Amino acid sequence: MRSLALNDLSHNKYYNWIVRNFFSTWLNTSLTIIALIFLYKIGTFFLDWAIFSADFKLNFQGQVITDRTMCSKNIAPGEYGACWTIIYARFDQFMYGLYPAEETWRVNLSFFLLPFAIIGFLFDKLPLRKYFIFFTFIYPFIAYFLLYGGPNLTIVETNKWGGLLVTLFLGVTGIGLAFPLSIALALGRRSNMPIIKSICVIFIEFIRGVPLITLLFTANVMLPLFLPEGVNPDNLLRALVAVTLFQSAYMAEAIRGGLQAIPRGQIEAAQSLGLTYWQTTRKIVLPQALKIAIPPIVNTCIGLFKDTSLVLIIGLFDLLGIGKAALADMTWTKLYYEVYVFIALVFFIFCFGMSRYSLYLEKKLKTDNS
Amino acid sequence: MIEQVIQLEKVNKWYDDFHVLKDIDLSVEKGQRIVICGPSGSGKSTMIRCINRLEAHQEGKIVVHGTELTNDLKNIDLIRKNVGMVFQQFNLFPHLSVLDNITLAPIWVKKMPKQEAEEIAMAYLEKVKIPEQAEKFPGQLSGGQQQRVAIARSLAMNPDIMLFDEPTSALDPEMIKEVLDVMVQLADEGMTMLVVTHEMGFAKTVADQMIFMDEGRIVEQAKPDVFFDQPKSDRTKLFLSQILNH
User: Fold this and answer.
1) What is the pTM assigned to this prediction?
2) Which residues of chain B are at the A interface, by a Cβ-Cβ cutoff of 8 Å?
3) What is the third-level CATH fold of A157-365?
C-alpha cells in the first residue's frame, strides 16, 4: 500500500514541481529550509504584532482606550503588539483631513463615485461603456461641486482638505491631467516642426531636471508672481499644477519610448492608404505605442501617487502629513509603527492595484502568438 | 488614345550627399505592368516610393493622374487615395484584426459606413482566398497570408495603380507562389502595376515593360522578350546572368 501511495505522489504535478524547484539539490534544499524558517519567523512575528497581540478598541484589561497610556503595550511593555486605537480615533482625519464632520458625506460620495468614473476608461468591454465614459468626463465637475461646494452646498476651502482626500485628489487629478498633456509632449518632441519640437524638449528636460520638491516650492512661491494681481490660487491648486507638470514630463518620456518602438513601416503603410497625420497617429501609432509604454507609464503613475506625500513640505496635509500630525498629538504620540504601517498599507493598496491593472492590460492587448 | 497615368521627368533625389536617383524619366500608361529589377541600392524602391510621396524628390517632376507631387498635402492625399502600395515587410497593423486592417482606410479616408466597408473587405479577402482568416490578428498568420491581406488592404481603397516593393522577398519559398498568383490575377484584370521584384518568372508572365536600374539610373528599359533575350547593356547582361543562373 505504501509504495502505491508514493507512486501516486510522484505522478502528482504539484509534487513534481515543488521537488524540481525547491529540493533538486542539497544546496537548494537547505536554502529552501532557511528561507521557510525566515518567512515563518517574520510572518508569525508580524501577525502576532498586528493582529493577535494587538489592541483594537479595548486593551487587555477590557478598558476602552482613550489615550496612549492605556495601550496594552504601554501598560505591560514587551508583551503586547500594536495599538490600533490611534487609527480609529483619528480615522476621519486620515480620510478627510479637517473637512467639517457634518459635510464628510460629500467626500464619501465622491470616493464612492470615483470607481464608476474610472471603470469606463479602464475596461473597454464594459457593458454600456459609453455611458461610463460620459460619466468619466462629467465626474470632475461633480467631484469639484461636491468637494468644494457651490449652489446649495457650503463652500469648504481647500485648506480644510486633507488625508486620503488630498492624496487621491492630487494623484488622480494629476495623472488624469498629465495623460493627455504627456501624449501631446511626446508627439511634439518627435515633430518635424522645429519650434514645437524645441518647446517640448525644453519643457521636458527642464521639468525632469528639477526635483519635485523644487517644483512644489516654485509653484507655491512663484506662481502668484506670474499671475495678475488679485488672482491668488490656493495651495492645493498650486501643488496640483506642479504635480501635473512633473508627471506629464515623465509620462511623455515613457510614451516617447513607445513611439520610438513603432517601425517606420507602420506609418508608411498608413500613409500609403491615404490616412492623414492625425488619423495615423490616433489609429495606428498611439494604440501600439501606448501598449508598449504601459509598464513605464504605470511606473510613473505609481511613482507620482507616492510622491504626492511631498506636498507635506508646502503645508498641505496629505495622508502622510495627517499621520505626522496625529503623532504630534500628545494623546497619541509615539505610536509610530501603527501610523506608518497603516499609511503604508493604504498606499500599497492603491499602488498594487495599479500594478495589477497594468499586468491585466498587457495580457489583454497581446495579439500575437509569442 | 493612350492614357498616361504616371510621368517622371528628370527626377533627382539625394540622401545627404548620396545621389540616389539620377535623371529618372519614366512614363506609365493605364493598364501597363512594369517590372523593375536591379541590384540592391540601385534606387528601384526609392523610385516607386517617390510615386506616392513616401519619399520626396528634390529635382524634376512627378505627375500622377495629372496631379503633380509637390509639398501640397492636398495633392499628396489625393494621389495616395488612388495609388496602393504593398511592402516587403507587409506592414500590417498588428493591433487590428485582419478585417479591421482592411476596413480602416475605407472607413476613415473614404468615410464609408462600417457595414459597407466590411462587405468590401470580405470580397477582397475572398479574392486573395483567405476569407476564413478575417477575425484573426496578423501575428497569427503565415507570411504569405499576411502579404495577401496587405494586398487586399490596398485593393479595398479601389486604387487605379498598385505599387509593389519586393512583395515576395521576405517570404519563405513555399509561400511565394500564393502571393504571385494573386498578383498575376490582378494583372489579368488590367490593374496598372509597378513591381520591384527579382521573380523573373513572374516578370516574364505579366510584365509588358521591364526596367533595369543600377546606381540610381534606369540603365535599360524594354519589352520582356527583348530584355531577356537581347539585353543591350553589359550591366544588364551581368545582372541577368547572376539572378537567372543560380
Assistant:
1) 0.84
2) 52, 54, 77, 80-81, 83-85, 87, 89, 91-95, 104-105, 108-109, 137-140, 150, 153-154, 157, 163
3) MetI-like fold (1.10.3720)
